[in-house]
Amino acid sequence: ANPDIVVIESFGYNPFGDDAPTIDTHWLLLAQAVDTVKTHLPNANIVMAATIAPNANRFGDGAPGIAFSVIEKWQRATTIKKYLENAVRFAQGEHLPLADAYHPSLLSDGNGNLSYINSGDHIHYSEKGRTLMATKIAEAIAKNKLVE
Fold this sequence. Notes:
By secondary structure, the chain is mainly alpha-helical. Helix content is 42%, strand content 9%. Strands 1-2-3 form a 3-stranded parallel beta sheet, with helices on both faces.
């Protein structure tokens, strides 16, 4: 396949850890992904995508085999938000088009808006969350005139 556009998602929900070295590793791996796309698909445009924000109060509730404590929910949501912010900074620093669903999905208290989060597992997108992400990708493509 020879795509016109490649969307690289933030990988924020699959973090390595919560300290500065792991955030740096995340940055370097995003750079490696971009370099790989540029090497193997030199005509493809790249869009970075920052997914929806997690909700620290409900994170993982209902997911099979998961029973996070209140503290674990908060820690995981905080870590995910660090990775999402890192992906946003990466896109800005590398002057890549950004499809940012993260910031629009944040509530004023710093939690992810539950309307964008699947009520069955409180991790993945809800239908409204998928629509937000798709809209942000389409907006990034249009704003940057990646498809004529």
